[in-house]
Target: DNA-binding protein SMUBP-2
Amino acid sequence: MTKTVEYGAMEQTKETNYPTENETLDFKRNFEGHNLDESQREVVVFALQEREIAVIHGPPGTGKTTTVVEVVACAPSNVAVENLVEKLTTSNGIQMIRIGHPDRLLPQIKKFSLDGQIAASDAGRLLQDVRRKIDETLARK
Model:
């Protein structure tokens, strides 16, 4: 799908993942079985129908994090992102990578960082083994 956007005198076309004006999605069907109340489902549908960006805001404890997990995981602070990661890790089948400086991550979240996932991969473990053998060899000299 594409969307044409005018910026001043210049017209640009960009690829999009949302329906064009002539297409629709069955949002209700897509959210059956999710643990969202009716107002949260409405917020998710609203966010998915927005063409560029949707802002979800509200007072503490109103379910913003639970709702946002259903759409996209991004937040304005490390604490908010950590909360999202914790919610995402309790959801089955969700693969995610926590982007951020590894030293600023909570210990239980580090395994979801890019560095943590690389280290846990087969290639990462092989690399660690090769580095260990190199260090052992150099230490003998």
In short: The chain is about 40% helix and 10% strand. The two ends are 61 Å apart (CA to CA). Confidence is low (pLDDT under 50) at residues 1-12. Residues 56 and 64 are 7 Å apart (CA to CA).
